[in-house]
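User: Just a sanity check before I run the rest of the batch. Below are the structure tokens for the first item. I only need the designed sequence back.
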């Protein structure tokens, strides 16, 4: 039987890098452009895919399970170019009656026209970059929408026939940004969408936020508040019937993201576009982040890879453990192995992990410390006799900005 990573690819990611403005915290592969040329974007994506087809690398399955268009701000493109992806990828591959086709959108550019064309083209899941409902917080972030725009966008999607909707929220904002996290969680629930994601704000080098933190203009929250906000949302959403199915993701029954789940389960995936990552046949590769450099490479040679690697068996094993422990399903006892088991037992004793029905999974308190778990598993794999106490603090970057890797702000609009 083919190993999971060498199967034909059923999950495809396409990056749409354009944003009208860069948010203060964002270091994603973004091109600031208020009216991007969609035809050019689609042609370059198509050219990259043609090269892969011709080379036989990354073979697509006859029928895809998921297609995810992320950004950037895909809703900034004329909607016919998002719908046009079906032609580029080939309609027969999208004929799966249970295909999950997600596109990310920002409320301010999600017009009725966008909603209608996307829905008619086959998009059946939309993920909105809402982040907050507080006008001051939205202004501070550099977002272009208002709190009311988020509700309007959700209604437009529903009116177009798309009910599988998600909203993203950001927690852990600086102390001087006046915002009620409780109010934001409540307002997200009021939208009655079946999926909510939440990400902790991280300070990435080179961003305006990084400079503001360095200059003392954006005091980042103490770990205490960061933890409280995360746990508050986890408890509130659980009470409202959402399953906390992954570190950052909550869904009503039947609405977990299948695209992300496939990645967490180690399924192969193809990423097209600048900065996109792929995994197939035991190899990982990733494209140039810069849109111009990527475009130039694709047009010249059909390729724009910035790197690739074949993870060692040990790396793959550690990664599989880590990915599985990001999810509420966790791992079966036998998957833990002799090395990871003692580490997880200590986490259980500390209330950071639970065992039930033969599986071990982390609790929300454990997820908050996922970076520590990575360090402990790594050292245990290197030295099975290592007995770490599990009390390391979160890694801190050289300039003192806390790196909260387990709960990053996601590249989703
Ligand atoms: S956070 Fe999203 S909307 Fe803001 S610049 Fe980054 S990709 Fe664009």
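Assistant: Here's the designed sequence for the first item:
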């Amino acid at each position: 039987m083919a190993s999971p990573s060498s199967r034909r690819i059923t999950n495809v990611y396409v990056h749409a890098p354009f944003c009208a403005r860069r948010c203060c915290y964002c270091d994603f592969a973004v091109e600031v452009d208020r009216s991007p040329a969609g035809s050019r974007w689609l042609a370059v994506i198509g050219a990259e895919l043609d090269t892969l087809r011709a080379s036989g690398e990354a073979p697509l399955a006859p029928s895809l399970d998921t297609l995810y268009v992320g950004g950037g701000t895909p809703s900034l493109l004329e909607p016919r170019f998002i719908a046009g992806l079906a032609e580029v990828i080939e309609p027969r591959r999208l004929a799966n009656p249970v295909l999950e086709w997600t596109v990310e959108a920002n409320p301010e550019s999600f017009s009725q026209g966008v909603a209608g064309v996307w829905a008619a083209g086959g998009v059946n899941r939309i993920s909105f970059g809402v982040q907050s409902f507080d006008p001051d917080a939205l202004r501070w972030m550099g977002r272009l929408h208002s709190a009311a725009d988020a509700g309007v966008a959700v209604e437009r999607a529903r009116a177009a026939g798309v009910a599988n909707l998600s909203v993203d929220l950001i927690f852990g904002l600086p102390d001087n940004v006046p915002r009620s996290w409780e109010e934001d969680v409540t307002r997200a629930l009021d939208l009655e969408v079946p999926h909510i994601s939440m990400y902790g704000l991280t300070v990435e080098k080179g961003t305006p936020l990084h400079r503001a933190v360095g200059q003392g203009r954006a005091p980042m929250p103490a770990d205490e508040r960061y933890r409280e906000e995360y746990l508050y949302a986890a408890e509130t959403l659980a009470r409202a019937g959402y399953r906390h199915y992954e570190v950052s993701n909550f869904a009503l029954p039947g609405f977990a993201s299948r695209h992300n789940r496939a990645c967490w389960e180690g399924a192969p995936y193809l990423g097209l576009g600048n900065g996109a990552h792929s995994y197939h046949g035991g190899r990982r590769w990733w494209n140039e982040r810069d849109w111009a450099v990527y475009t130039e490479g694709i047009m010249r040679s059909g390729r724009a890879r910035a790197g690739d690697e074949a993870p060692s068996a040990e790396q793959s094993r550690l990664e599989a453990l880590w990915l599985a422990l990001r999810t509420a399903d966790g791992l079966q006892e036998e998957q833990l192995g002799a090395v990871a088991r003692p580490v997880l037992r200590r986490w259980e004793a500390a209330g950071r992990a639970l065992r039930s029905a033969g599986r071990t999974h982390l609790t929300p308190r454990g997820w908050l410390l996922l970076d520590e778990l990575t360090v402990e598993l790594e050292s245990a794999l290197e030295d099975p006799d290592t007995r770490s106490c599990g009390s390391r603090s979160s890694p801190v970057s050289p300039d003192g900005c806390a790196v909260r890797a387990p709960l990053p702000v996601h590249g989703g609009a």
